[in-house]
Design goal:
five-stranded antiparallel β-sheet; 192 residues; Aminopeptidase; 5 helices; alpha+beta; three-stranded antiparallel β-sheet
């Protein structure tokens, strides 16, 4: 498969500067996963998740151009907010998916999100990576709150939020008017 020019690395001083910035981002290792700084070569995996969006849980439909733009914007959160997207790999380096601490238009507070390739789903990897990202967000990054915004029809993400100990805390509308459930990781609301 031939990649378009914008997906190909260009060696030189600019690439070296990018590598130096990536080296400063937190790297987290769990029993089965590595959360590392994203690289340009991870964009096809992001596209593989975003473009089909068969269930419509990711705000799609997306095309390759929109997926790359979203990838770049999400990676850029590290510079703008001090948190952002991690690429999740296995310990051999194979990309499994992504976790992020995001803050997109329409969000009211920082969001813990997860997007995994189909072949990495159903094995507990998303829970493991998301728990590590949450620990970083609430510990090292000292964010005062953390939620997950979940499409009401996304049963798998709702189960994962519950597995992580999040509690349902209302609904918001995204910028396009679609409803999203708010699943609160911290501070947890008092049980009803």
């Amino acid at each position: 498969m031939s990649l378009p020019p914008h997906m190909l690395p260009v060696p030189g001083p600019a690439a070296d500067a990018g590598a130096a910035l990536r080296a400063r981002l937190p790297r987290i290792e769990t029993a089965r996963c590595v959360l590392r700084a994203p690289v340009l070569e991870d964009a096809p995996a992001w596209e593989a998740i975003m473009v089909p969006d068969a269930e419509g849980h990711l705000g799609g439909p997306h095309d390759a151009h929109g997926a790359f733009t979203d990838f770049a914007a999400t990676v850029g959160l590290w510079l703008l907010r001090g948190h952002g997207l991690w690429t999740v790999t296995d310990h051999a380096g194979a990309v499994l998916g992504f976790v992020l601490i995001g803050f997109e238009p329409g969000d009211r507070e920082p969001e813990l999100g997860w997007l995994f390739l189909p072949e990495a789903r159903g094995r507990g990897l998303a829970a493991e990576a998301a728990a590590a990202a949450r620990a970083h967000a609430l510990g090292t990054a000292a964010l005062p709150s953390l939620v997950s915004y979940i499409d009401p029809t996304n049963a798998a993400s709702r189960r994962l939020a519950e597995r992580l100990g999040a509690r349902r805390d209302g609904t918001i509308a995204d910028p396009c008017g679609a409803a999203a459930e708010v699943w609160r990781h911290a501070p947890l609301p008092e049980p009803a």
